[in-house]
């Protein structure tokens, strides 16, 4: 099954399947968090950490490039720093 998915990733979408999957799932998660909490900052922080976990799994399956993994790590760190309680 994994070989089939990697083949589809390489042939049909030119290596963008994992990235598109990651972005699509993040949009759905962010939308649901916004709907539930009405707090944009916390929703973005939670979404970025879930995205980082998902990016680790997709990178282990060789579906996303390493740069996408590093970008999700940076976004997760920045959103955590911006929402860290001050005081």
Radius of gyration: 15 Å
Fraction of residues in β-strands: under 5%
Assembly type: single chain
Major sheet details: none
* Domains (count): 1
Shape: elongated
Describe this structure in a few short sentences.
The chain is mainly alpha-helical and 87 residues long. It has helices at residues 2-11, 17-37, 40-60, 66-83.
Structure description:
The protein is mainly alpha-helical and 87 residues long. The chain has one domain. It contains four helices and no strands. Helix 2 (17-37) runs antiparallel to helix 3 and helix 3 (40-60) packs antiparallel against helix 4. The protein is elongated and about 50 Å long.
List the main descriptive attributes of the protein structure presented here.
87 residues; mainly alpha; 4 helices
Give the SSE layout.
Elements: H1 2-11, H2 17-37, H3 40-60, H4 66-83
Helix pairs in contact: 2-3, 3-4
């Amino acid at each position: 099954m994994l070989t089939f998915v990697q083949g589809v990733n390489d042939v049909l979408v030119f290596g963008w399947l994992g990235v598109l999957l990651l972005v699509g799932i993040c949009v759905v998660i962010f939308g649901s968090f916004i709907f539930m909490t009405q707090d944009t900052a916390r929703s973005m922080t939670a979404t970025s950490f879930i995205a980082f976990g998902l990016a680790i799994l997709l990178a282990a399956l060789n579906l996303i490039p390493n740069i996408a993994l590093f970008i999700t790590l940076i976004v997760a760190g920045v959103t955590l720093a911006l929402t860290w309680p001050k005081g």
